[in-house]
Amino acid sequence: MIDPAYVTQILINGVLMGLLYSLVALGLALIFGVMDIINFAHGDFVMLGAYLTFLIATYFLIDPTVTIALTVPLFFLLGIAVYKAIIKPVLGAEPLIQIAVTVGLLMFLRNLALAIFHAEPRGVPYTVFSTPITIGPITIPLSRAAAGAVSLAVLYIVHLLLTRTRWGIAVRATADDREAAALMGINVERVYYTTFGLGTALTALAAALIMTFSRADPYLGLLYGLLSWVIVAMGGLGGVVGVLASGLILGIIESFGMSLISAGARELFLYVTFLVVLWVRPRGLFGRR
Amino acid sequence: MPALELKEVYAGYGEFRVLHGVTIEVGKGEIVALVGPNGAGKTTTLRTIMGMTTLYSGDILLNGNSIRRLPTHKRVELGLTMVPEGRRLFNHLTVYENLVAGALTRKAKEKLSDSLEFVFTLFPRLKERRNQLAGTLSGGEAQMLAIGRALMSRPSILLLDEPSLGLAPKLVIAIFDTVRRLRDEAGVTMLLVEQHVKHSLEIADRGYVMELGKIVLRGEARSLLTDERLRRAYLII
Ligand SMILES: Nc1ncnc2c1ncn2[C@@H]1O[C@H](COP(=O)(O)OP(=O)(O)OP(=O)(O)O)[C@@H](O)[C@H]1O
Ligand SMILES: [Mg+2]
């Protein structure tokens, strides 16, 4: 018999990671849903955000979560700049050209990180979230609990933005029918760059949360890029709810897989889940077309 | 001065030229019908007015000012809107959200509640269905929403591309009646593209007949209705 406390522990770990994974993927889901472009550099924005968090937290000796006051607005602007410089010119282009452009960005970011920081992981000097919470037999690292809670809150805020504001209606209308949106007087160009800005800003936020319990390294983009892709493919175009559900499923499966089968096979569980979902539901769990 | 004027417009899609010197005038408060066979370039004409094609030469004037260089959303801010062919609703948005999406321009925002009331009075069915997803509406309701959504931007000129397409005969009559009332009661100026040539010319003030990207006939709607060439080409079918 498996100890119920142990199972609960694994489940809680999975849910907390799943929430964070949902936040990591949210930006990608937004960008893909609105402008139909596959941003292969998404995970590497997380990596860039992790290094920036490391640098700022180390320089000012502050908690990594405080750095978001700087990194999130900066990444919003970075997203807009990247959109204008390299995404916009290829929006109507062949998928192959779009892939080449964002993979190029990925290579650039990854090699930039390798050149500056080498392959050595960097952790922040200190975080207020270092003590674990213990409830009976269950132990939850405070950093993971905070990351999960903040992720959930941000997912909810983005959901409200999309459903309750004029900007959100413009974004969803554009996602549905770009031309009809323009005919209604919606500035599609502005929808595109604000969406790309927000999607990128969210990676900085996720990166700060990741840095409370993990370290920055040049290959962080590999894991978080893959993760985001799996979540978006599973979530289909199901909006924030689809992203959240897919993230939770992945987090829980990963947690059980790592605890009960092998801790080293993290990516393997991602791939297998992805393949199974695509096999059962080719349009994603929450696909709508 | 006409409310809307196309002057010797040559336009198309990239290299594919469709319109060859089209001149059309729409006076304030008029319904002008634009008719012609499939593939004549009627939709292309409306899309060109909205800035969604390649304009090679010629000019488009809105109240005397050229709009040829403006992007689509700027033209909407100036009072132009189009009900596109096939409705093109935002299917994953509710009826209410579709209407709000039609009123996102600066000018329309302030009048949102007035505009909503206007549209709900015109189409009470939409009010009943306000929280339903647009993708689940019936054909008639969807067309009402397409027209209502366009009216939300408070257009001075409304372009209608086959608003009766795919509707049952009774609903066709209702749509034409709505178009007529929009002119008579709300003073909306309209350029109407339609397959139902006879119905269109009966409610229109003037009409243009387009073939192969050129205007081949123009005149008062009433005189076009009795024109022998037109009768032979369309009305008998
Ligand atoms: N997006 C497009 N790209 C290239 N060519 C197009 C496009 N849309 C229409 N055409 C071509 O332009 C010509 C005119 O088409 P248009 O849709 O304007 O005709 P129409 O008069 O509206 O016809 P219908 O009555 O069938 O709606 C046609 O030859 C058509 O194939
Ligand atoms: Mg047409």
Overview of the structural elements:
The complex is a heterodimer of chains A (289) and B (237). Chain A is an all-alpha fold. Helix content of chain A is 73%, strand content 3%. The mean pLDDT of chain A is 91. Chain A has a two-stranded antiparallel ribbon. Chain A is globular and about 60 Å long. Chain B has helices at residues 42-49, 72-77, 95-101, 106-110, 112-122, 124-128, 139-151, 169-186, 197-203, 221-225, 228-235, and strands at residues 4-13, 16-26, 31-35, 54-62, 65-66, 80-83, 157-161, 189-193, 206-211, 214-220. The longest helix of chain B has 18 residues, at 169-186. The N and C termini of chain B lie far apart (37 Å). The mean pLDDT of chain B is 94. The interface between A and B is medium-sized, with 20 and 29 residues. The structure holds adenosine-5'-triphosphate and magnesium ion (MG). Magnesium ion binds at residues 42-43, 85, 161 of chain B.
